[in-house]
Input
Amino acid sequence: MEQLIPIASKLQDVLGALGQSTTLNMPQIVVVGGQSSGKSSVLEGIVGRSFLPRGHGIVTRRPLVLQLYNTSATPPMDTDEDERLEEEKKVGINSSNDKTKESENIDTGDSGSANMDEWGEFLHLPGKRFHSFALIRSEITRDTERLVGTNKGINSKPIHLKIYSPRVLSLTLVDLPGIAKVAIGDQPPDIEDQIQNMCLEYISNPNAIILAVTSANTDLANSDALKLAQSVDPYRERTVGVLTKLDLMDPGTDASDMIHNKVIPLRRGYVGIVNRGQRDVDADLSIREGLRKEEHFFRTHPVYSRDRSLLAKCGTNNMAKSLNNILMHHIRECLPELKNRITNMMADVQSELDALGAPTDDTSGSTALGGHLLALLSKFTTNFASMIDGRGGHGAVTTHASSSNATGTNELYGGARISYIFNDVFTYSLMTVGAFDGLTDAEIRTTISNANGTRPALFVPEISFDILVRRQISRLEQPGLQCVDLVYEELQRMASQCEPTELTRFPKLRDRMVETVSGLLRRCVGPTHLMVGNLVKIELAYINTSHPDFIGGSRAVAHLMDKVGKDERTGGMSAPSSSENEDEIEGVGASSNKQNGAVGATPLSSSSRNDYCRGDEENRAIAPTSTIDESGGGGIMNLLFGGNRNYTTNPNNSANTNGFRSPSRRNVAADVPPSIVQLPQVPHAMRHSDVPPTDRERVETEIIKSLIESYFSIVRKNFIDMVPKTIMYFLVNHVRDAMQNELVSELYRDAEVPTLMKEAEDIAQRRKTCIEMKELLMKALEIVNEVRDFNTFK
Output
């Protein structure tokens, strides 16, 4: 069981070299506390030697990872301490007089010094032993100043120190800067936040035991260390309280209630200790002498000495044993998880190493390089085809395995994205396109009138349907071209995702491959655009009114008649829509009777002159443009209105037509005819929007709209079906089938193979780093597997 801590310490060394100690959350004891709370004295008491820098303000400015190794199963009970102290003083004096002699005093193991059973080693100085603890203190100060300077700034990069001694218990501790509230001197203004963030970085590790150091002569409720520990350990399950300076409490008071866990209870309890005072430090009182004074204090104290359970929780030696026991059990709980994480890290490193492959320098000649090139091209082509067809799924991509696995379950991937574009983007968008989007009834009326020419047609002019339906069909071309562009972008995206991980080794090959694939895609996009445009042109080339799904003229009229019948029964279309329309129709009928059915009568006729004399001026101005000839006895209009509507107007109602158009343009007496008839000025742009539609125009508009809607739906359905097929044939399938040949013909050339297969400059370094990491992780796994040699669950 006691071997667990050395195993964890060796594992921490290995992971420290990898820079992964924080990631793996190694079990360790983290010491936190306010300035002057006695943190340094606690650590020095555990080690039994004075080795930490001392001074005013912030002295510990970098985390110190302290690993204690017991070099003897049965440490000697007594040693020549005075001889050691004398030597340490001499070394300390020499080092303060001449810094250049410090490095010369570092013993590598060959020295015959009397202090050979205790030494320290720094991770940043491998292989060098410090047999003088004064030199250890100097090295801590020197390495701190090397990184953060001589001011009072701090840095989170740790110093790793191992101490080997027969007088210590195996422990791993982390000493952090003391918590400060106010910046003094040349300290940074945010020194409190910096220290707190550094402490949180270490104590947030769920596998860390928090050693919260608090002065016993202060109120425990005001402890900065306990408050900081509670922020990451709210249930106080991994916090150990350390009460220092018990000898400085007011006479008549003691810390028995706090040590008995009655004030602020902690799951792991409290330990009380007595540190060396400042006078002892100034007098150079040794640590071991201070420990003897501490033991004497507790054994002679009137409260602590009477309670054996209380006495067992007091003293530095008892604290070290308690921490050793806590850390051993904690390591036992954490090792299985650490082993799993190390195994996963090894798998990741091995995967990256496989991706980097063997150095190309080791391959034999251009033949081997060419074979490797063909293998990469083949793998890329296979990945691309698998993504399109869905055979390989998200596993086809090997560039980012973890992200690909997440992508394959959370979102569409590869060919499924192209299918989404066809069905959910293109089809849905075209189904929302209406047959009359951008087309108003006024435009339809104008088109019909333009198609009639100089005289109204007996039937709805077919040329108006042809013009309008072609205009609406042309609007389908742009969505089709946009669909091609969307699929083109998806293919580019897929090509970038299909790159094998090994391709990162060869940047020139990757660049040429991307260039070749992009060129192939661009060459295929042109014909695809052209074909989609031709689909629209094909529809425009011949308007097939004989299509079996087309409603046709007869059915359109039949539907309209049904609608008219329904409107008549409900007072709809057969009734005048407004008084103005009624007046207009009556005016037209009166004009027709007066002209005896002759279309195009002029205002100069005798009847018009008589009407004009009667003041019915506006009726003649309107009559030539709105008269409907029903004398033919046939045609769609007669079919709709013949026998159903009488356009003959009662002469008594002719005066009502004055309200249709204002006669204010003529300022003549009603009973005096003008000598010369003046026609109104013809507008530059003639539009129907100024005059409400007649019933005939409404009928013609409804028939045209019915025909346009029917034929547009047919064309839209065909277009929705043909565009995806065109894109798949001319773009997707062609690129997939031609990819292999295109890459081989463009890239596999004997003269270019050595250049393309040249590795990037950082690949060799990455491969070297991966090999080193793999070796270190294997070593770490071997260290963890040492636990099998004994039963950790006893």
